TrEMBL record:
Enzyme Commission number: 2.5.1.10
Single GO term (MF): (2E,6E)-farnesyl diphosphate synthase activity
Keywords: Isoprene biosynthesis, Magnesium, Metal-binding, Transferase
Entries under SUPFAM superfamilies matching the protein: Terpenoid synthases
Highest taxon listed in the record's lineage: Bacteria
Pfam families attached to this UniProt entry: polyprenyl_synt (PF00348)
Entry similarity comment: Belongs to the FPP/GGPP synthase family.
Name listed for the protein in its UniProt record: Farnesyl diphosphate synthase
């Protein structure tokens, strides 16, 4: 099956699972359910849950078993986007071609929708662990990877430094910290969690981690590039917001040519980390090309 067809199939599996898992019953708190669903189903590519499922399958475990965790990481990712778009953060009006959550539901409800998704993600993962006690150790370790990546030593830590760096000159190490934590952490956690859940040996986990570290950073630098020269219609959001908010980015520090070159090196390093697995790693190879070939 062609890569795009595989990707579409996995996206459909995740979307159907998200629809099953997310609350939709009639209740007094209906509005927050609606707001949560609005952003979750606003057109995401589901890259993180797909990578988690792929890592699970790579280590010879049925990928459906990890669906609660895959959906959980997508909920966490979506919560971060809702909060990122708020006026107190990036102040964006559009996300994936649609009005951002706070533009539809108001700032207060958008905060609660993000909080709701974050908490519900852990409810979902914990329920899965309780329902399958024989998988408790690996599943709990997988959830720990996700929790750590989403917290103050991961995504939130990166967001903190990103906010503190506005209107200031930052060095290359600080910028790498922001990118590695703010975006890279969840990429790495997705792949590590899938591998750990499936009982990966240390060497396999090391290879997959190296792959994830490289594509995670490369993916974020590509975002920096697209914010300057991307097509708003294709991206589904306004370009130029990084410059408008005076955020530290690879192009602003290193220039556009170096940034493109850096992305290409990172993706080559990512491929090198898994090349010894041959055809078994074909999906990850195809995913790397898919990510690096996003249109500039």
């Amino acid at each position: 099956m062609e890569f795009q067809a595989i990707l579409k199939k996995k996206q459909q599996i995740i979307d159907e699972a998200l629809d099953r898992y997310l609350p939709k019953e009639k209740a007094l708190q209906n509005k927050v359910f609606d707001a949560m669903r609005y952003s979750v189903f606003a057109g995401g590519k589901r890259l993180r849950p797909i990578l988690m499922m792929a890592a699970c399958e790579f280590v010879n475990e049925e990928e459906e078993k990890i669906l609660p965790f895959a959906c959980g990481i997508e909920m966490i990712h979506t919560y971060s986007l809702i909060h990122d778009d708020l006026p107190a953060m990036d102040n964006d009006d559009y996300r994936r071609g649609k009005l951002t959550n706070h533009k539809v539901y108001g700032e207060g409800m958008a905060v609660l929708a993000g909080d709701g998704l974050l908490n519900y993600a852990y409810e979902l993962m914990m329920q899965s662990i309780l329902d399958h006690p024989h998988q408790c150790r690996n599943a709990t370790a997988a959830m720990y990877e996700i929790a750590k990546a989403a917290g103050v030593y991961g995504m939130i830590g990166g967001q903190v430094v990103d906010l503190n760096s506005e209107n200031t000159q930052v060095d290359s190490d600080t910028l790498d910290f922001i990118h590695n934590c703010k975006t890279g952490a969840l990429f790495i956690a997705a792949i590590r969690a899938g591998a750990i859940f499936s009982g990966a040996d240390p060497e396999t986990l090391k290879s997959l981690t190296s792959y994830a570290e490289n594509i995670g950073l490369g993916f974020q630098i590509t975002d920096d590039i697209l914010d300057i020269i991307g097509d708003e219609k294709k991206l589904g959001k306004k370009v130029g917001s990084d410059q408008e908010n005076q955020k530290a980015t690879y192009p602003s520090i290193h220039g556009l040519d170096y940034s493109v070159e850096r992305v290409n090196r990172l993706f080559q390093q990512g491929l090198a980390a898994i090349e010894h697995y041959g055809e078994k790693a074909q999906f990850f190879t195809d995913m790397a090309h898919y990510l690096v070939k996003r249109e500039y």
